[in-house]
């Protein structure tokens, strides 16, 4: 499995506090069956200092050495929606890209979706950046208006659901929308969004089990394997089901016999 969202870098943001914790997280992830982690420190979130490329490279090297190369760590970031994205978008080597690919992990503030996001997604695509929306199921506005995520996907974005939303770590609303996003075929990735070794841990298997129970093993496995594997190799995302808006909006389909009543 491949984890495209993890705060594994030591002393960089609100994730791992030390190299020792990063190593412990790598050990847990490897035991869980994760082969590759994309390190995604917060960027432009107004709270943490956005790390530069050299910082990310050096920390990855340090952690990789400390865990004897047991797991592969690739550079990336969790990029808060900001005008700074466009200052860096043209740079093929930019830190905002996941492993230097055309994909970028895009985060919104939890309470809102930026105005004109449709236009921004179009502009990002034009600039050679394909946004992957981080944990839409945890966004308060999308919880009230789930059709927003369907619209963003239709416009060319992808959606990444947090493993913890499926395992009910973020409350009933995030869980309910995560389930609907999966049922609607609008999820493209499940990632750990891990921060520590003892809470918000780097595990995918528990969420994979939940997801398999909802949408079946084939689609669920693609979300932690085939799709993220294609992403880190900068290829087209192979598993993109046709969206089912009825499932997203919780509109129950009538059973055939109900039409006779
Ligand atoms: Fe995150």
Description of the structure:
The protein has a 6-stranded parallel beta sheet, sandwiched between helices. The chain has 12 helices and 9 strands. By secondary structure, the protein is α/β, with parallel strands linked by helices. The chain has a single domain, classed as Metal-dependent hydrolases (TIM Barrel, Alpha-Beta Barrel). The longest helix is centred in the N-terminal third of the chain and has 14 residues. Bound molecules: fe (ii) ion (FE2). The site of fe (ii) ion (FE2) has 4 residues, from loops.
Molecules bound to protein = fe (ii) ion
Helical residues, percent: 25-40%
> Got a strand count?
9
Uncertain spans: none
Overall morphology: globular
Q: Under CATH, the topology is which?
A: TIM Barrel
How many separate domains make up the residues? 1
Number of helices: 12
* Strand composition percent: 5-15%
CATH superfamily: Metal-dependent hydrolases
Strand order of the largest sheet: 3-5-6-7-8-9
Class by helix and strand content? alpha/beta
Radius of gyration: 18 Å
Q: In CATH, what is the class?
A: Alpha Beta
What is the arithmetic mean of pLDDT? Answer: 94
Which architecture does the CATH hierarchy give at level 2? Answer: Alpha-Beta Barrel
Distance between the termini: 47 Å
Order of helices and strands: EHEEHEEHEHEHHEHHEHHHH
Reported for the largest beta sheet, the result is: 6 strands, parallel
SSE blueprint and pairings:
Layout: E1 2-6, H1 19-32, E2 36-39, E3 42-43, H2 53-66, E4 72-75, E5 78-80, H3 84-88, E6 103-107, H4 117-126, E7 130-134, H5 140-144, H6 147-154, E8 158-162, H7 163-166, H8 172-183, E9 189-191, H9 205-215, H10 217-224, H11 226-232, H12 245-248
Parallel strand pairs: 1-2, 2-4, 3-5, 5-6, 6-7, 7-8, 8-9
Helix pairs in contact: 1-2, 9-10, 10-11
The structure holds fe (ii) ion.
